[in-house]
Each structure stands twice: as C-alpha cells, then as structure tokens.
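Here is the promised in-class demo. Please do not try to memorize the tokens; focus on the logic of going from shape to residues.
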C-alpha cells in the first residue's frame, strides 16, 4: 500500500480520515502491479493487451523500452507477466527498481539532468538496435517529458532546463508545454518511434494527461505529433515565456522549414505501431469513489478533466462544500465529492509549494465549512518540484485568511501549511495518473 507519512496525526477527524483513505485507494488502484496483470496477458504464443493480440511466434525478440515516473514499475510488472519471453530492454525513471534483464537507468524530475540525458541516449541506442522482427513494448508514463531529455540540434541541457523552468512557471497548460518540449527534443514527438523503425511498437501508457492524448503523455515519443514548430512559437508568445535565444532560434528555423518536423499523423512510420492507455485519472477516481461508498458516504465525481489555476479550483471546491452543507446540492451529506485533472500555477512569488498545495490552501482560505475536509495530491507523490505530494485542509487550517492569501500571492502554500498539520508526504508512489482531489462533507 502507498504510505502517507504521519497518517495518524493527519487523520485527526472523521472527515480527514476518509479523505486520506480515498486518496490511498485511488493511488493504489493505479499501481502497475495491479493494472498490468489486468490488461496484459500471455496465452501460449499470443500476447494480449486489452482487446489487441500480438503473435509472439513471429518475433525474434520482445523488449521493453521507455520512461517516466512509473516506467520501472511497469517494466517489472511486464516481466512478471511475460517471464522468459521478455528479452531485455531499457527504461529511464526517477524511481528505479530492479527488473530482471532490463537496464533501469536513473534520471530526474521535474527538471532535466545530465544523467537523464545520458540515460536517454542509451535508450535511443537500444531503440536503433531493434530489428524488423522485434516487438518493442514502449512503456510511457507521467513524468516522461522530464526524465527523457534529449536536446535536439544544437541545443544543450542548459537550454532544456531553462526552457522547462520557464514553461512550468508560466501557468501554460500541459498540452502547450509539451508542444514546445517536443520540438526541442530528439526523442519526443514520435522521434523514438523513428529510432525504433522498422520494429513493431506497442505503446503502453499510464496517462497523466487530461483527455489521455497520447501525443502529450511523456510528450508522445512513439505516436504521431499533430503540433508544429509554429505552434511551439505561439505558446512562447501567448504565455510570455522567456526562453534562451538559442531555443527560439531553433524553433524559428523549424518553422521556416530548415529543420525536419516531428512525424505527423498518416506517416507510414506508424503503420506497425499501436497504443493503449492502461491506467488514467479515472482509474484512481473509480477506486476513491468505491472507498467513499464503502464508508457510508454518497460519492459524486465532478470530472476527471478539471484544468485551470490551482487557487481558482480550490475556491470552487470550497464553494461546493458550503453548498452541500447548506442545501444538499449537488449531493446530500454525508458526501464525498471527487475530481481529477491537472492544475497549473502561474508563479509570481518565490515560496514553496505546488499546484495541489496551492489548491488546498486556496480552499481553506475561501472557507471550508465545519465538519468538512479537502485533500488533494499529485498521484506520483511529487507536487510540483516539492517533496510533498499535496495537502489536506479543513476549517482549522486557516485562522487568518489574509495571511493565507498573502502566502498564495507568494506561491508559498507549502510554507504556510508546513506547521498546520496539512502537508502530505508519500515519497515516489510508483505510478502517475494526474491529480486526485477529495472533498468530504459530514452530516450536520
């Protein structure tokens, strides 16, 4: 089970205890060791992935390649299913675990690192070694965009780091962020598929992206890329992102046709590729909903696709809690209201925190009613660039709303909540299916 540190102290009311139980159930349901055996199986000479089948007898090798927060966990689960039918591979992750016969290479998240570049180069070399009779299981999970850095053209790691920092601070949605990343990379935006050709490629994704757009999960290394260099430049302009001059020049050269585009939909490169989403935010929400029901609460799922500024979403959840308590709409208490998606923060201050901590503090500052609790986490255990997974708050978390709002203005939700029995720490969870939010409202 995923462990929340100091859980007993954090769960000091029935509402907080239920909120944490729902979070734990959601993260646990998205664990590769649970998901992979439910979606991947070997039957004689047939490999089944969801409803698709692949003839193992026609392959001279089966390898696993890929990257992301949960990549090693997925690879280990695949090894458990395939056994000696798995012939090796390379995965890159910030959460390494041993996988027999597979090279698990360490990288970093959320900002690219030198060891990440070296690991990604080894992944690309392994991909190029695959032949036409190779079946490549491409494991891609949330966090892959950061842990798979491969500077394109004349760009270097410093360019990628500065660009990543600026994009993450801009408040741009992940689809926009990854449009830029794809066009600064030698592995993203379908370029890993190009390195793998002519092998047969089966992408196995754990999606941390609203809508499960596979070109955005890990920036889509093995699928067609509908975005362009021009789109990437438009993102920089729209969100006023200050990037190194060499990055802008690189994108401008691509837009002018002086650099090859990422592979597009319809490219024959993808004729021997298929893709599957094995788990996503809905996986976590469904499990959290069942836990709420088992505990005697009426569950309501708002949406698995909520995006926007974290503080605004936090205020909306607080308003829902007050409405539930006052009118019984949209659900009668005792109730658990659930939501998922991916929140952003436009960074203007220099405090500590992340989107989920900011969302929680904004809710508490707005006014969570008595007998309610609101908890939110990033399911990978890393909220933004902090050591916290998220936070749990209630009416007692904020005595001075003005001070809380000042902390929000300084993007210091983590600092404000640090001494208020609110911060959630799990360490790496072994999965990543986006954010999970749990609002518990007890009966009066």
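The designed amino acids, position by position:
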């Amino acid at each position: 089970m995923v462990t929340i540190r100091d859980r007993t102290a954090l769960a000091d009311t029935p509402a907080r205890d239920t909120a944490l139980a729902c979070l734990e159930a959601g993260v646990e349901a998205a664990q590769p060791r649970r998901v992979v055996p439910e979606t991947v199986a070997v039957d004689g000479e047939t490999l089944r992935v969801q409803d698709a089948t692949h003839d193992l007898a026609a392959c001279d090798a089966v390898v696993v390649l890929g990257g992301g927060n949960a990549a090693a966990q997925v690879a280990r689960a695949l090894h458990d299913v395939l056994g000696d039918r798995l012939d090796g591979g390379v995965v890159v992750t910030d959460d390494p675990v041993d996988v027999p016969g597979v090279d698990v290479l360490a990288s970093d998240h959320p900002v690219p690192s030198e060891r990440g570049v070296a690991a990604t180069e080894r992944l690309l070399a392994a991909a190029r070694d695959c032949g036409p009779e190779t079946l490549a299981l491409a494991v891609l999970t949330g966090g892959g965009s950061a842990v798979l850095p491969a500077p394109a053209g004349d760009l270097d790691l410093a360019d990628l780091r500065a660009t990543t920092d600026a994009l993450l601070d801009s408040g741009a949605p992940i689809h926009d962020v990854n449009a830029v990343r794809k066009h600064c990379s030698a592995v993203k935006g379908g370029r890993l598929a190009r390195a793998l050709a002519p092998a047969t490629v089966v992408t196995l994704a754990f999606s941390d992206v609203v809508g499960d757009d596979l070109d955005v999960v890990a920036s889509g290394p093995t699928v067609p890329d509908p975005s362009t260099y021009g789109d990437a430049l438009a993102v920089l302009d729209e969100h006023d992102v200050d990037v190194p001059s060499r990055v802008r020049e690189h994108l401008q050269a691509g837009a002018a046709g002086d650099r090859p585009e990422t592979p597009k939909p319809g490219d024959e490169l993808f004729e021997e590729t298929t893709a599957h989403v094995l788990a996503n935010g809905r996986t976590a929400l469904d499990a959290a909903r069942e836990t709420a029901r088992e505990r005697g609460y009426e569950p309501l799922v708002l949406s698995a696709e909520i995006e926007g500024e974290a503080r605004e979403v936090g205020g909306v959840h607080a308003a829902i809690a007050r409405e539930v308590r006052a009118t019984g709409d949209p659900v009668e208490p005792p109730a658990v209201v659930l939501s998922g998606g991916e929140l952003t923060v436009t960074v203007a201050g220099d405090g500590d925190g992340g989107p989920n901590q900011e969302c929680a503090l904004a809710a508490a500052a707005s006014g969570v009613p008595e007998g309610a609790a609101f908890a939110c986490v990033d399911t990978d255990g890393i909220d933004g660039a902090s050591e916290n997974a998220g936070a749990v708050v209630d009416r007692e978390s904020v005595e001075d709303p003005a001070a809380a709002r000042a902390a929000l203005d300084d993007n210091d939700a983590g600092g404000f909540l640090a001494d208020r029995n609110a911060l959630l720490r799990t360490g790496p969870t072994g999965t990543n299916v986006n954010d999970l939010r749990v609002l518990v409202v007890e009966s009066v």
